[in-house]
Structure formats: structure tokens, C-alpha cells
Amino acid sequence: MDGMLSQEEINALLNGLEPDDGDTDDTDDTKYLTDAEKDAVGEISNISMGTAATTLFSLVNQRVVITTPVVEYATWKDISRSYDKPCVFIQIYYEDGLDGNNILILREKDVKVITDLMMGGDGTNTEGELSDLHLSAISEAMNQMMGSAATSVSSMLETRVVISPPTATKVDLDDNISGGEIAEFLKGKFVKVSFNMIIGDLVDSVLMQLYPFDFAKNLYREFMAVNSMESEIPPKPQSSRPKDEPKATQTQNTYEQPDVPTGNIPINNMAGMMPNSAPYMNQQPAYMPTFQDVNIQPAQFAPFSQMAQQMVPPENIDLLMDVPLEVTVELGRTSKSIKDILDFAPGTIIELNRLAGEPIDVLVNGKFVAKGEVVVMEEAFGIRVTEITKQRQ
């Protein structure tokens, strides 16, 4: 009847599972995680991405916040319906310690912002198409981030975890592309871990990490194996002594009860009644500490701005040495109306805003870095650098 649950749905609810969604790629034993497995995956992801955020901060020199993860189930249709288009898929394979792979998904704009910051920009140069330069730079950034995350996982699981260099691919989810073309586990249901990633005032979006079910379950087993070993370690034995052995006598700060009258004692008469000027209240001994003259000086603190600068870790340019950059030599520029441009024909001469013999500009990724002069190298043109701009410029 309409509105009635099937026996399969009732059994699933009684077992704390979700009803079958028609996905036949997984068996009932492997396409769901228990609450304990979800918690373990979330905890491991939280710690590893926290370490990755610290690494990303050192690359972009911007405040990076990655919030607590949310662990859910998802299918390829869920991803293609809900996430921005196009986006960048970054595949991470484990070579040692763990068996399997997972995928990070970033928005196209976020990749451009991170790449521009890595190149020394202010993060606003996000115009144009996503190029191989962006993919190469984000792969290097993810290599550093997930490498540090693997180190955290190694400490947590007490085993050596090694990843291979990640590969980045631009994916347009509007195209007729199936998840199986990217990774085998995307054909069916998988585990989705979502984070909210904030980079300064430039990025505030969702970062997703996709796990196959067997990889997530393996993480849980490794995590529980380490915890069970720690719980089996016996506590440190405490020193014991026979009941009839007398306690060690104290030699400092001890007083014997004097023979004083009981009852309320006036405060001003107490000091003369007690030996060694030790105050007593209701016949209870108390220790009166002695004070010595000490030299007290005001604390000296460095200015806050100076402390903040010292807290910023030094940039490591070696991380970017293998990232390719686009070098452009600009001979000159001019402005023309649409009418003049339509009148162009073979043989038309265009006057530029530069004198003959004047140095030409050298641009790297669209940024002016040097001046030079044109030379001929065998049968090709070249440029001899004559002036380098200042680093601040």
C-alpha cells in the first residue's frame, strides 16, 4: 500500500542503516559506515587537514582556517548536482602505510587565488582560463599540504605513511562524464568529508575529500588497533609498603600541639601563647612562611607588531622551484579604434609607444620584472637582460 515501508526499509531502519538507493556496485556490508567508523574518519581528517592548513599558510602567507569536517555518504550524481562547475580534482595515492587513494575537490576560482598568492600576487588575479600553470602550482601546493597531513597520520597510526605526488585535473561536471572515468570508486557510493576552507578575505568555500569505503574502513581498523594497544599497556606500578611499616617522619614545617586552653582565643593574645610565633586557630597548627627581600622589576615585552612578525614562519622558495612560469617580452603598445583595426591589411605599419633602441619590457606571469635589449641568437631572437626591477616593485 502507498505510504507503507517495505520489509527491506524496515530492516535497514532497525539496523541503523539507510534504505537501499538502488546502488548495486557495493554489498550491504561495505557501503555503510558505523557511527564509530564515521567518528574515526572525521577525527583523522580533522587532524590531518589542520596540519595541511598550517602548511598552506606558509605557502600563501595568508590566514588559513579549515573547519571541523562533516562525514557523509555521496554518489557521483550528488557531487555533480551540488558542486561548482568547473572544478579541480586532485588525486592522492598512498604508496606506503595505507592502501588506496582519495580525491580532493577545489573550486576553480580557489585554485586561481591560491596559485596567484603562491606566485607573490595579492590573490585577485583570477581572470582568464585555468591553465597548466595553475594545475602545476596547485599540485605542488597539495603535495606539500598532504605530505604534512600524511606525517600527522603517521604519528596517529604509529606507522610510516607515504603519498605519491598528487595529480590535478580540471573537470567540468556539466559534461557527459562519469565518475568511473576519474576513479573506480566513484562509480558507486563513497564517503564524502566536507570542510569549510577560509583563506584571508579571499576564499570562503567548501573543500571536499572523497574516500572509498574500503579505505575509510581500513583507516578505522588502523586507528582502533593503535588505541587498543595503548589501552593494554599496564599502568606504572605504585610503590607500596607494609601496613606495619611506620611512615617517614617529616623534618620540616612540623609543629607539636602546645598545651593551650581550649575555646575561643582573642586574636591579639594568640601570638604570645604560641611557640616560635606560629599562629594557631582552635588548637590547629599552621605554617607561617618567612619572607626574604627580593628584587622586583617590571616585565619587559616586545611590541606586538614585532612579535607578530616573528611568529610568521620564513618563506621557503625551494618549494616552488619546479613550477613553470610564462615569460613574455613586450616590444611596445598602442591604442587603435575599431575602424583603424578593420582597415588593417598585409603591409600595414603600426607605430608603437617606444623609441628605436629603447629597452623592452620582460614580464613574468603578466608582471613587469626586467628590461632588456633584443639580440639574435643564430636564427632566433633573444633578449639580453640589462636591468632588474626592485623586489618591492
How would you describe what is shown here?
The protein is of the alpha+beta class. The chain has two domains: 12-232, CheC-like (Chemotaxis protein chec, 3-Layer(aba) Sandwich); 326-388, Surface presentation of antigens (SPOA), CATH 2.30.330.10. The protein is built from nine helices and 14 strands. Strands 1, 2, 3, 4, 5, 6, 7 and 8 form an eight-stranded antiparallel sheet that branches. The chain has a four-stranded antiparallel sheet with strand order 11-12-13-14, with no helix packed on it. A two-stranded antiparallel sheet has the order 9-10. A hairpin with a 3-residue loop joins β3 (87-96) and β4 (100-107). α2 packs across α5 (132-157), α2 (35-60) crosses α6 (213-232) and α4 crosses α5 (132-157). The longest helix has 26 residues, at 35-60. The protein is extended, with a radius of gyration of 35 Å. The N and C termini lie far apart (75 Å).
Outline:
This protein has 393 residues and is an alpha+beta fold. 30% of the residues lie in helices and 22% in strands.
Strand content: 15-25%
Distance between the termini: 75 Å
CATH architecture of the largest domain: 3-Layer(aba) Sandwich
Q: Percent helix among the residues?
A: 25-40%
Overall mean pLDDT: 75
Structure classification: alpha+beta
Number of helices: 9
> CATH superfamily assignment of the largest domain?
CheC-like
- The helix/strand series, from N terminus to C terminus, equals HHEEHEEHHEEEEHHEEHEHEEE
